[in-house]
# Entry
Amino acid sequence: MRVLVTGGSGAMGSKFVTELAKGGNDVLYTYLSRDAPVHGGASKSLDVTDKESVSEVVSGFGPDTVLHLAALTNADLCETNPSLADAVNVRGTENIAEACKKAGSRIVFMSSAFVFDGSKPAFSEDDAPRPINQYGRSKLAAERCVEKSGQPFMILRTDLPYRWSPRHVEKNNIMKLIRAFESGEKYREITDWFNTPTLVDDLVTVTNALIGDWEDGTYHVAGPDFVSRYEFASRVASAMGKDPESILGIKSVDLNLPAKRPNVFLRSDKAESKTGIRMRSLDDGIEEVLRQASVERSG
Ligand SMILES: NC(=O)c1ccc[n+]([C@@H]2O[C@H](COP(=O)([O-])OP(=O)(O)OC[C@H]3O[C@@H](n4cnc5c(N)ncnc54)[C@H](OP(=O)(O)O)[C@@H]3O)[C@@H](O)[C@H]2O)c1
# Structure
């Protein structure tokens, strides 16, 4: 399969690029600012807000499938700069969808738990989205562009992706935690933000399975646990043999951040029953990340 991965330089994208290439696919990925090579794929610079460039890159490569990951992912920046969020996340996706139509490509779009408001104990694909911040609104509007494209599409919603990725310390919560616990730095973590953490390795496996047994639609692809950021950090500390009590719990209100966060438990039963793949628990996922860290460091 010929796959174009937009945002292939990102924390999630770089894993997709490597694994898709390992699976024998012909992969081209795009980056905006980070052009450090990602193993397995050829790369191209692309700003998705530039409609003509998007059209040129997509039609030039002629992908069977476009995995559209490029996005403005900083929720606070989206809140303070909604026109940038709109340009990158909505218009950028519209540009991708139009280019896919011209090139006859299928679209896989990565969306977010933040399309929901967190008002229910858990959310399935049948629940009505109701975003409470600009990032969520922009991802929902982007979903609509993909649905309206007329092309075969899959929308995947995930949450708090984590993986072993030394190149993405600032963009990957678990890398910040590992670094802090190794250096003995005092760590503060929020007690009232809850997420459905997702091991990126499993996200890639499930996405590949969904692509292989293609059926248009929206799928939640997230881990089975629903935990606070504080609990996430405590589990990482315990797995590293550190004292979880050393983490200082703080309330989000004390940070006075621009964007409100919804506490969303994403249920992935639909993807799980379609693929037969059960995503790893948070504890197993953390063990896997620490195992990869140790293999890489000893190699
Ligand atoms: N991180 C999360 O918590 C989370 C949760 C749910 C869903 N998602 C979704 O998953 C996808 C991947 O996220 P991630 O965690 O990998 O985020 P990330 O590490 O911030 O990566 C974002 C990617 O988008 C690229 N990009 C940003 N602006 C662009 C533009 N104007 N034109 C083209 N490329 C642009 C970046 O390029 P450079 O790095 O080269 O500048 C990077 O490759 C996104 O669609 C995001 O909305 C993320």
